[in-house]
């Protein structure tokens, strides 16, 4: 190729990868903020991209406004003090104005997925998003050996006061949850990059859209939620609140943390035996501890029934995460009893029986759970399995 023509092509690519515009008269609603369509979780393939400034395109572009000098950097999501050297940018710094920056990724030759927090800093203010890079082969969720494919949950009836319906794609991937209350329906649509592989379902990004709650975006790394964002976007001052998920060496979820919620979970013999929730900084403060004991009833349905039958929803899981098995290895069994310190000190016990009696009096595939407080019979929860 003619040297002059090659120089023109590379210069054009550089122009596409980073642009800026400064306006001395512009008023900024914040020191820095994302513009355009903001995606709090970005996923790139294991093959990566070419070096910035080369003939290859960026993995994607990020657009933002900055009210002064700015820098962009990437740090390991799980070890923020460590730089994510596999992430590169067309330029790492700039001046006040509107910017479009190309983001690049080295090839990932590992069987493990990896993730980084990409952060823009300006005048002491920072904005960020999560970048996930896939591995050389899809990583599937860790609950496959637990799940009984004959126990695919399609409906849960909570003593007739609340019904929850689950819908799936032809590949068995969760696509929606409908909650029916007397006060109205609560519809959740689930969009994900989930794909079925010979080893099971692999997924890196899940977007939850609801008619009654803010949108939620989950970032999944090596079969487990690593981070989730609550909110619609982070443009022009709107805030996506990140929640970070931590796990122990056995791949059990041990904590969920954000600026508004802290959840700590304890495990014994493969079962979730306690969790403490602290949401004192929230507009609806909550602080309490639940302690759980277990019997021999297996928690082997396609979704993690612990969260749907017994324990309180821990602040931000919203039903989708346990239904898609994205919270690490689940409890092996279903709880036999639960006590709630500071809220309801009486011990609630649970009994289980196979099968469900439907509205026509017929016994159909499922699981019936009955709760009791002493001699008082409480709720009867019916879990329906697909025939």
Describe this structure in words.
With 387 residues, this protein is mainly beta. It has 2 domains: 3-133, Immunoglobulin-like (Sandwich), CATH 2.60.40; 153-385, Porin, CATH 2.40.160.190. 6% of the residues lie in helices and 50% in strands. The protein has 3 helices and 28 strands. The chain has helices at 3-17, 306-309, 320-323, and strands at 18-21, 32-34, 41-44, 60-66, 70-76, 87-89, 93-94, 97-105, 114-122, 125-133, 153-158, 162-168, 174-181, 184-192, 195-197, 200-202, 205-210, 216-221, 224-230, 241-247, 253-257, 262-268, 271-278, 287-298, 333-341, 344-357, 363-373, 376-385. The protein has a 16-stranded antiparallel β-barrel with strand order 11-12-13-14-17-18-19-20-21-22-23-24-25-26-27-28. The longest helix has 15 residues, at 3-17. It is elongated, with a radius of gyration of 24 Å. The N and C termini lie far apart (64 Å).
Could you give a short description of this structure?
The protein is mainly β and 387 residues long. The protein contains three helices and 28 strands.
Number of strands: 28
What low-confidence regions span 5 or more consecutive residues with pLDDT below 50? 1-17
DSSP strand (E) fraction? over 45%
**Cα radius of gyration in angstroms:** 24 Å
So how many helices? Answer: 3
Fraction of residues in helix? under 10%
How far apart the termini lie comes to 64 Å
Find the structural class using helix and strand composition: mainly beta
Arithmetic mean of pLDDT: 85
Shape: elongated
- For the record, the CATH class of the largest domain is Mainly Beta
Subunit arrangement of the protein: single chain
């Amino acid at each position: 190729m003619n040297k002059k023509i090659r120089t023109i092509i590379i210069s054009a690519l550089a122009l596409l990868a980073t642009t800026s515009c400064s306006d001395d008269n512009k008023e900024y609603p914040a020191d820095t903020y994302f513009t355009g369509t903001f995606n709090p979780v970005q996923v790139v393939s294991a093959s990566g991209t070419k070096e910035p400034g080369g003939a290859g395109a960026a993995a994607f572009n990020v657009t933002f406004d900055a009210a002064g000098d700015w820098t962009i950097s990437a740090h390991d999501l799980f070890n923020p003090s460590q730089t994510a050297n596999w992430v590169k940018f067309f330029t790492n710094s700039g001046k006040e104005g509107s910017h479009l920056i190309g983001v690049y990724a080295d090839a990932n030759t590992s069987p493990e997925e990896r993730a980084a927090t990409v952060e823009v800093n300006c005048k002491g203010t920072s904005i960020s998003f999560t970048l996930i890079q896939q591995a050389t082969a899809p990583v599937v969720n860790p609950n496959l050996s637990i799940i009984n494919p004959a126990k695919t949950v399609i409906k849960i009836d909570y003593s007739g006061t609340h019904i929850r319906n689950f819908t799936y794609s032809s590949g068995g991937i969760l696509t929606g949850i409908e909650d029916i209350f007397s006060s109205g329906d609560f519809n959740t649509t689930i969009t994900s990059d989930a794909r079925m592989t010979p080893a099971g379902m692999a997924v890196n990004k899940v977007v939850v859209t609801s008619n009654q709650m803010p949108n939620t975006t989950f970032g999944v790394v090596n079969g487990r939620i690593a981070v989730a964002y609550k909110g619609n976007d982070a443009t022009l001052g709107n805030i996506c609140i990140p929640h970070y998920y931590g796990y122990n060496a056995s791949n059990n979820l041990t904590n969920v943390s954000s600026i508004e919620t802290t959840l700590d979970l304890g495990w014994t013999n493969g079962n979730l035996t306690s969790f403490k929730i602290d949401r004192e900084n929230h507009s609806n403060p909550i602080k309490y501890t639940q302690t759980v004991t277990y019997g021999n009833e297996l928690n082997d349905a396609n979704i993690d029934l612990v969260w749907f039958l017994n324990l309180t929803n821990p602040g931000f899981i919203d039903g989708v995460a346990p239904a898609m098995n994205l919270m690490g290895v689940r409890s092996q069994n279903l709880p036999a009893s639960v006590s709630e310190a500071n809220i309801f000190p009486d011990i609630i016990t649970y009994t289980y029986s196979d099968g469900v009696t439907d509205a026509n009096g017929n016994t159909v595939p499922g699981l019936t759970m009955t709760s009791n407080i002493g001699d008082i019979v409480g709720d009867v929860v019916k879990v329906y399995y697909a025939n």
